[in-house]
From TrEMBL:
The keyword Transferase applies. One of its GO terms (cellular component) is cytosol. This is alpha,alpha-trehalose-phosphate synthase (UDP-forming). It comes from Coptis chinensis. It is an enzyme of class 2 (transferase). The lineage of its organism: Eukaryota, Viridiplantae, Streptophyta, Embryophyta, Tracheophyta. In the C-terminal section; belongs to the trehalose phosphatase family. In the N-terminal section; belongs to the glycosyltransferase 20 family. The chain holds residues 76 to 567 of 943 of the full protein.
């Protein structure tokens, strides 16, 4: 990695073009030609900033519609200072490609929720136009990449929004080093088979040199989809098509654990921790932190908590569940329905078990800032991550990173990718089985210190040694190796 030397003989950094649907910024227009930008320090940003050997540029949609040229020019130059390059998508494309094909078709399908049914049937009818918009949007991303690509750059495409991109990029320049990584699960080939554009998407992804997933299972599902749907041969390294090998492998993501551990020492976080401890004195704290999405299993989690309270009256005034659910895709009717459903269940349970001075569930529909989140993680006794499906789930990692003094317990869905890495330390549950989750809550709350320490130690070691930086370095280094191997094979 980063072994290239420039003209002065100095070691030059590995240049990366990171392509994702959204740029890691939020942009707000202040005037005809002025914008204010805020960088969102998500996992991917800290992963790539944390690797000294990388010089990364970001390519993606800024999340705003900018129809006029003056606005586009001003936004491009403001973004350039943050090493970001925008792809301008108009409202119609966003509607068809992003809301339609990505969020209404691929997202539920990849999480085993199936293709649109009943009220979503209208979407199925407009399937072809949404797929056309998806391809068109991917081509627009490819055009921007090709304008900024320089020889020696590595192009790293991210997620289900950009499955068509590797093919577009290779058509532009077959020598371009292209990697593609999926942040969601890749479902069983039986599920992928139902997608009308199943073959075209697989072929487009296979144009990449390296295809990465969070877990070995997802990689295996992808290879078997290529075998069963395209009739291609799966090998231990990947998928082979007429002598061309596309390497397929698992690269489990991590977090920037040091960022969380260091934050706990800050006075403002310590003040927060003190406040929370006083606020919930005498009660055990349980925590859920999720985007408000059907895949996160929030209603199931709350129902399991209700069952626990029902069966364990002595705990009713000794435990509180804090559920922080940041709203997403709020314009989609299904997400609005989910919000009302969660509110209804929380209201009913608080009415049933609450007293004049305390309620068992505190539900917040909002995002918390990083420091408040760290403090919450630190005071938690039991974290509940009950996703129905989840590519990895970073909340479970963040909780573990903040627990080195408390050594709280993690209850984790066996359908989250994180179950593969934190399974030995967590209590694994089937989130659909409310009785099992309720009894796991009881087990976790009553767990002896010795067992808690042992479980926490296992997970803490994993989270602090398999970081986001390692993940990014490994992926890019393997992508470089893949190219070298392919060149050697061609010379033979
Ligand atoms: P997400 O589905 O967004 O990511 P997750 O991995 O849990 O899920 O990451 C969520 C991030 O948002 C965490 O960093 C968390 O701290 C933050 N967050 C969530 N709710 C919040 C709140 N209320 N306030 C503040 N912050 C909040 C997708 C896939 C995952 C995969 C990641 C990374 O769906 O499975 O782990 O990408 O690949």
């Amino acid at each position: 990695l980063g072994e290239d030397r420039n003209n002065n003989g100095r070691l030059s950094k590995q240049r990366l073009l990171v392509v994702a649907n959204r740029l890691p910024v939020s942009a707000v227009r202040r005037g005809e030609d002025s914008w204010s930008l805020e960088i969102s320090a998500g996992g991917l940003v800290s992963a790539l900033l944390g690797v000294k050997e990388f010089e990364a540029k970001w390519i993606g949609w800024a999340g705003v519609n900018v129809p006029d040229e003056i606005g586009q020019r001003a936004l491009s130059s403001a973004l350039a200072e943050k090493r970001c390059i925008p792809v301008f998508l108009d409202e119609e494309i966003v509607h068809q490609y992003y809301n339609g094909y990505c969020n209404n078709i691929l997202w539920p399908l990849f999480h085993y929720l199936g293709l649109p049914q009943e009220d979503r049937l209208a979407t199925t009818r407009s399937f072809q136009s949404q797929f056309d918009a998806y391809k068109k949007a991917n081509q627009m991303f490819a055009d921007v990449v090709s304008q900024h690509y320089e020889e020696g750059d590595v192009v790293w495409c991210h997620d289900y929004h950009l499955m068509f991109l590797p093919k577009c990029l290779k058509e532009y320049n077959s020598k371009m080093k292209v990697g593609w990584f999926l942040h969601t699960p890749f479902p069983s080939s039986e599920i992928h088979r139902t997608l009308p554009s199943r073959s075209e998407l697989l072929r487009s992804v296979l144009a990449a040199d390296l295809v990465g997933f969070h877990t070995y299972d997802y990689a295996r599902h992808f290879v078997s989809a290529c075998t069963r749907i395209l009739g291609l041969e799966g090998t231990p390294e990947g998928v082979e098509d007429q002598g061309k090998l596309t390497r397929v492998a698992a690269f489990p993501i991590g977090i920037d654990s040091d960022r969380f551990i260091r934050a706990l020492e800050l006075p403002r976080v310590q003040d927060h921790i003190k406040e929370l401890k006083e606020r919930f004195a005498g009660r055990k704290v349980m925590l859920g932190v999720d985007r408000l999405d059907m895949i996160k299993g929030i209603p199931q989690k709350i129902l399991a908590f209700e069952k626990f309270l029902e069966e364990n009256p002595s705990w009713q005034d000794k435990v509180v569940l804090l559920q922080i659910a940041v709203p997403t895709r709020t314009d989609v009717p299904e997400y609005q329905k989910l919000t009302s459903q969660v509110h209804e269940i929380v209201g009913r349970i608080n009415g049933r078990f609450g007293t004049l001075t305390a309620v068992p569930i505190h539900h917040l529909d909002r995002s918390l800032d990083f420091h408040a989140l760290c403090a919450l993680y630190a005071v938690t006794d039991v974290a509940l991550v009950t996703s129905l499906r989840d590519g990895m789930n970073l909340v479970s990692y963040e909780f573990v990173a903040c627990q080195d003094s408390k050594k709280g317990v993690l209850i984790l869905s066996e359908f989250a990718g994180a179950a593969q890495s934190l399974g030995a330390g967590a209590i694994l549950v089937n989130p659909w089985n409310i009785t099992e989750v309720a009894s796991s809550i009881g087990y976790a709350l009553n767990m002896h210190a010795e067992e808690r320490e042992k479980r926490h130690h296992h997970n803490f070691m994993h989270v602090t040694t398999h970081t986001a930086q390692d993940w990014a370095e490994t992926f890019v280094s393997e992508l470089n190796d893949t190219i070298v191997e392919a060149q050697l094979r061609m010379r033979q």
